[in-house]
Automatic annotation (TrEMBL):
Protein name: DUF3558 domain-containing protein
UniProt xrefs under Pfam families: DUF3558
Annotated keywords: Signal
Range of residues in the leader sequence: 1-26
InterPro entries, per database record: DUF3558 (IPR024520)
Originating organism: Rhodococcoides trifolii
Amino acid sequence: MGKSVRVMAACAAVVVAAGCGSDAVAGSPTAAPLGDAQFDPCSIPDEAIAAAGADPGTEQPDIFGVDLSEWNVCKWDSNSWYYLGVLSTTYSFDQVRDNPQSRAFQEVVVGTRDAVSYLDVNDPDLSDCDVAFSSSRGVLIVRVTTKVNEVSASPPCDVATRAANALDSYLPR
């Protein structure tokens, strides 16, 4: 299995786990269908993706064509040690925070928004990091995923936070 396939499979597992992790929320709220109003991360301008450290020409708009009805996903190669992903969901910020598949939450700031960075419980190498924050359409997540057989040159949460700040003005409030 190639590097990109393994990384995308891991990304798909995390996205699906995030959707399934809502059992920790009282009443198990369900996200509304995305519809046309949900933010499409692939609509972020190329210059913003480049400013965030990724190559806009490497855009991948989904995860192997899998229908993730509560998510819109877009991923780019950084031409370095990591992939940059932006995910949009109708899940609430509380549902993201309450996901049992996430750990090590740290408060961060993205532009003027309160945000959190966090790790996946199944990532003992600390090779990936998500930064999540609310928008009027749900939650946005900026993800840094270390490529297979690569070593992170900087802490992934630092890179994800910098990328989120570079993208902030292009993302819905």
